[in-house]
Amino acid sequence: MTVVIGFEGSANKIGIGIIRDGEVLSNPRRTYITPPGQGFLPSDTARHHRAVILTVLKEALEQAGLKPADIDCVAYTKGPGMGAPLVTVALVARTVSQLWGKPLLGVNHCIGHIEMGRLITKANNPTVLYVSGGNTQVIAYSERRYRIFGETIDIAVGNCLDRFARVIKISNDPSPGYNIEQMAKKGSQYVELPYTVKGMDVSFSGILSYIEDAAHKMLSSGQCTSEDLCFSLQETLFSMLVEITERAMAHCGSQEVLIVGGVGCNLRLQEMMGVMCKERGAKLFATDERFCIDNGAMIAQAGWEMFRSGQVTELEDSWITQRYRTDEVEVTWRD
Questions:
Q1: Binding residue ranges for a divalent metal cation
Q2: Residue ranges for the binding site for substrate?
Q3: Which Pfam families does the UniProt record give (predicted)?
Q4: Domain coverage including residue 69
């Protein structure tokens, strides 16, 4: 039996999870929430993580009923993400690894999402749509790499939603995306927005600029409601994502789609993707907010796979990087 503890803190979530041979033993998490109309700055986010990380670590061990001696490996998020929060978490993971005398393992955040999704859903070899506040990628596994078939050429889909939420002052609690999703359910009028798919890639910055500019004019003149704008933005963004995912499936001859990342909990995205999959005779796999949103267990799970295939990170190599592409990692644990 191999037990791995995973530290995640690449953005505004700080999570520590423990995995034992595919079983999630514990997965506590905290979120740094800012007032409506504001985003989260790296320095403030890192300060939040520093304040709670030891409490979360204690919770993780207590919920799992384990002692440090029971842990076989300490995994942490190496990147991608925000610099200051990543450094905070890496520092604690390094310290814990040395105090407990356990090997250390730097994990790619994106691969953490994929491996957690595969574990929870039991998807075999899916085309992966990875959608979050910092990333938007369509990925498929081939020859020991997770290959990126399409991606955003500017901002991530979650970033587009979050920044729109700031424009119309939607609450960040529990998350802007969740609150947009609830408001969108009450929207009835579709407002046409720019639809920008370029081959296998998507662009969201133009849509954001357009809706930022148009929102106050349309709302003040009574042309539409905030709910209509939330509905229209979701429909447009998600249609683009379904289109490039379907194209990647056709290219790979795939019959499975796995949605991962924070935006992946959105039930409307899952519904739209489900319609496309049904038309193709394919299967859709998705997880709920416990595992879609950044969490420690996903880093532990990817770390478990890497550790079992013989990988470790030496102390002098245990740096972090804000830019770390999914296809940079050699996938030594899959055929």
A1: 109, 113, 130, 294
A2: 130-134, 162, 177, 181, 266
A3: TsaD
A4: 3-114+294-328
